[in-house]
Amino acid sequence: MITLDYSNKVVLITGAGGGMGRLAAEKFAEAGASLALSDINYDNLKSLQDTLPVECFIGQCNVANPEEIERFTEQAYQHFGRIDVAINNAGILHPQNKLADIAIDDIDSQLTINGRGVFLSMKYELQKMQQQGSGVILNMSSAAGIFGAPGASAYAAAKHAVTGMTRSAGLEYARYGIRVNCLCPSFIDSPMVDEFDKNSSVKKDRLAAANPMKRLGTMDEVVNTMLWVCSDYNSYMNGQAIAIDGGLTAL
Ligand SMILES: NC(=O)c1ccc[n+]([C@@H]2O[C@H](COP(=O)([O-])OP(=O)(O)OC[C@H]3O[C@@H](n4cnc5c(N)ncnc54)[C@H](O)[C@@H]3O)[C@@H](O)[C@H]2O)c1
């Protein structure tokens, strides 16, 4: 039987205060990992830390802020002496609109948080991983990072950037024992999509109907994939954009 054992691993997760990042923290903890968790929302992180049965270093950190990201990565590295796995998960959505109607603030925040946030996270993580001679990075892209997303072109722009950075870094760092991949989920039943459902004329049932499997994905399905993708059982996958989308992008 295969068991995913992270008991000798340090796993860093951004955006760990809520949604899939929080569930990832819980499941990696169940698998024995020591955790370095960041989020812009400190209270959510603290309440999570109090429930976790493993050593857990937390830091409030806005992924759009280079100083905060550099400091958190350095502190996590000093605390544990290594970073084996980094999951760059923090991200935001913007209100649904056709491109000409998207606010300029929305394209700016998409590129800054979803795009540059992943770049900055990888920049400092890769420096540490190169020093230690190994590491695994998993970025959260999206189905919108590999195909068009009507109503979400700014989000798609930022997520395509994540996919492009992932493939490029995967090629650059393979020789240093570092694997870099990204996950590309379609709509997942998470707090982000609850918010979308509340504020958009397109409701969850319509999103579900548009998927070949006629349902949304679950947060468990995404996090279970993270556990496997980042594990030693998956040691030859590198530079890939991994769709987890009920087959949506196979169309
Ligand atoms: N839910 C989906 O359908 C879906 C699909 C594809 C990809 N994704 C991506 O997966 C990731 C997680 O999504 P989710 O559904 O769990 O979202 P969520 O909104 O439930 O959680 C996102 C977390 O990121 C944190 N965050 C937001 N901005 C931040 C910032 N600037 N710095 C640090 N932390 C910040 C939030 O506080 C929150 O804890 C995101 O990158 C998202 O784009 C989600």
Automatic annotation (TrEMBL):
It comes from the Bacteria. GO terms for molecular function: oxidoreductase activity. Transmembrane segments: none annotated. This is Oxidoreductase. Pfam families: adh_short_C2. The keyword Oxidoreductase applies. Belongs to the short-chain dehydrogenases/reductases (SDR) family. InterPro entries: NAD(P)-bd_dom_sf, Sc_DH/Rdtase_CS, SDR_fam. Coiled coil: none annotated. Keywords: Oxidoreductase. The keyword Flavoprotein does not apply.
